[in-house]
Design a protein that fits this description.
single chain; 400 residues; alpha/beta; Rossmann fold; Rna Polymerase Sigma Factor, Chain: A; 2 domains; seven-stranded parallel beta sheet; four-stranded mixed beta sheet; 44% helix; globular; binds NADPH dihydro-nicotinamide-adenine-dinucleotide phosphate; binds magnesium ion
């Protein structure tokens, strides 16, 4: 078994402290958690650049607090809102759109990039950070699903390091303890909360609402990943993410449902040992781990007391009611362009569900149709990946 995060991030090659950060997706849920860590440790982290999407007002508030030299927003409307809300006497360089995100990801002044844009929009900046040799704290799992092979190649060429922010992959990183292609690993086990509809059948899922889908039992997250958690697509994307991060074929990655979200994932070794990572379900924990690696720093998260939790339970995922996990497994096995299609159609379908245009159960149905039609295509360059992403979105938009 070959691991990708191998050679393990060499302590000597990592940036020293204080580490200068470029944060992409600063106005989102991951951004909120990252700022809690940064506020607690101003001696360890400085903020060089902040990028949001459309929420210019929130980005301006964050910039007023952290005073980065660079900022980026998605469009001119957000730029105006951003500039209108900046305090007098402070004028960061303001960039707009995808080229701006890519530039902030590769800024020579930044040691570390927190990649936390949601969706395929995170691909190009993550690739830019990989090409620029950055220490990448990666929350944007979609970029690995879309073009993990290209990001891996860029990291290998530049010496960039990926630190997995996604809580399951962070747990695996900790459980792997530097093990690589040494014949000692047997299996990775991703835990899944099961989302708000765990235990429900297909018929129930036909009529669930947006509000029900967004009501995750354990985690507070952005809308898209909350719906992905409800369909189990989040676990499907994470399975592909794990394969890219650790260089594995999908049959070596299992999924177990664990409703309490206390065990974040497990690594199994050939001697039968399984190493689990436990913690409160709060993204400050993996974010702090990544940003301060190899040091460990304190975070303001309630202490985990297992006696208070009482019991930890585990069950098999129901692939009949939640076909998205199976679809992701099949897409990854079918060839490198299939996950690009899966991801694009999922994003279109989730947006349509959130806008009240389709039912919850239409999300897997649309993906199944698209994957059934798809014939393996060229994804050997970023341009080819983005073209296939755009084409798959167009086709998904016109599905009945
Ligand atoms: P949110 O929806 O809360 O935030 C998304 C961020 O991306 C916002 O800053 C938003 O800007 C920005 N954004 C949206 N669209 C674009 C675009 N087209 N171009 C540039 N920026 C854009 O999402 P989360 O923080 O929950 O998730 C972010 C990523 O982290 C996702 O990939 C998710 O899968 C991953 N992740 C999240 C976890 C969590 O607990 N939240 C856990 C593990 C992984 P604005 O709001 O200003 O428009
Ligand atoms: Mg996760």
């Amino acid at each position: 078994m070959k691991t990708y995060i191998s050679p393990w991030p060499e302590t000597a090659s990592l940036p020293g402290f204080p580490r200068a950060l470029s944060i992409l997706g600063a106005t989102g849920s991951i951004g909120d958690s990252a700022f809690k860590v940064i506020r607690k440790h101003p001696d360890l982290f400085t903020v060089t650049a902040l990028a949001g999407g459309r929420n210019g007002k929130k980005l301006a508030r964050l910039c007023a607090e952290f005073r980065p030299g660079f900022a980026c927003v998605l469009d001119d409307g957000a730029r105006k809102e951003f500039l209108d809300n900046l305090p007098a006497g402070y004028a960061p360089e303001v960039l707009v759109g995808p080229e701006g995100y890519a530039r902030l990801a590769a800024l020579p002044q930044a040691d570390m990039v927190l990649s936390a844009i949601v969706g395929a929009a995170g691909f190009e900046p993550t690739l830019a950070a990989a090409e620029a040799g950055k220490m990448i704290c990666l929350a944007n799992k979609e970029s690995l699903v879309l073009g993990g092979h290209l990001i891996r190649r860029a990291c290998a060429g530049s010496g960039a390091v990926i630190m997995p922010v996604d809580s399951e992959h962070n747990a695996l990183f900790q459980g792997l303890c530097g093990h690589g292609d040494d014949g000692e690993l047997k299996r990775l086990i991703l835990t899944a909360s099961g989302g708000p509809f765990r235990g429900r059948d297909r018929q129930f899922l036909e009529s669930v609402t947006r509000e029900q889908a967004l009501n995750h039992p354990n985690w507070s997250m952005g809308a898209k990943i909350s719906v992905d958690s409800a369909t189990l697509m989040n676990k499907g994307l994470e399975l592909i993410e794990a394969c890219h991060l650790y260089g594995l074929s999908p049959h070596l990655v299992d999924v177990v449902v664990h409703p309490q979200s206390i065990v974040h994932s497990l690594v199994e070794y050939v001697d039968g040992s399984q190493l689990a990572h436990l913690g409160m379900p709060d993204m400050q924990v993996p974010i702090a781990f990544c940003m301060s690696y190899p040091a460990r720093v304190a975070v303001d998260v309630p202490q985990l007391n297992l006696a208070d939790v009482g019991s930890l339970t585990f069950e098999k995922p129901n692939l009949d009611a939640f076909p998205c996990l199976r679809l992701a497994q099949e897409a990854f096995a079918a060839g490198p362009s299939h996950p690009t299609v899966l991801n694009a159609v999922n994003e279109v379908a989730v947006a349509a569900f959130l806008n009240g245009k389709i039912r919850f159960t239409d999300i897997p149905a649309m993906i199944e149709v698209a994957l059934g039609r798809h014939r393996e295509a060229d994804v050997s360059t970023p341009e080819a990946v983005l073209a296939l992403d755009a084409q798959s979105r167009r086709e998904a938009e016109t599905m009945p």
